[in-house]
Amino acid sequence: YMIELPGNRCTRCQQDDKMIKQEDRRAELMDKLDDYKSGRAKHQWRKDTWIRWKKSQALLGRSRNINYKAWEYWEPDTDTEDEGDPIVPKDSPEFQAMEADIKQRHKKTAEKAFTAEKCRDRGNQCMKEGDFVGAIEHYDEGLEYKRDLKALWTNKALAELKVFRWHDAIASCNKVIEYSEIFEEGFKRS
Known about the structure:
Layout: H1 22-60, H2 93-129, H3 132-145, H4 150-162, H5 166-183
Helix pairs in contact: 2-3, 2-4, 3-4, 4-5
């Protein structure tokens, strides 16, 4: 329906330059609604990804490694807007201790990744020599240091196939699929 205004002026503010047609206003509101719906759908997808990740972690058990990459999947329970960044005192001894702890954990994580890569190389060497059981042991050792390294899981599955451990190979392949679903948005980056 259309409302005819006297003199094409707003009856409240008496301005005519800010008047828009009802169809234009409806189109503007529908665009806002579409933006809100798409944002809401993205939020729900990220929240579902977080919940799936939490469920998978409950199945895996507690790991010795802390995977900070997984923190990117966290979604807040409410839809509140972010408040400002907190002001952190730079000279605080607690802050300096926390910063030192973060650096130490980062260094430890890098060392574990390096050790896992060395174990993978040793396992690959055993595979070349035909020592498949030794390769499995090296890959298992590497997985103790870095559980989410797909190359270790796939190489281990191949070695398990070579020694006819079918169920173990299936379990190793399932781990690769699970990690890909959680950390890589499906198989887009695999």
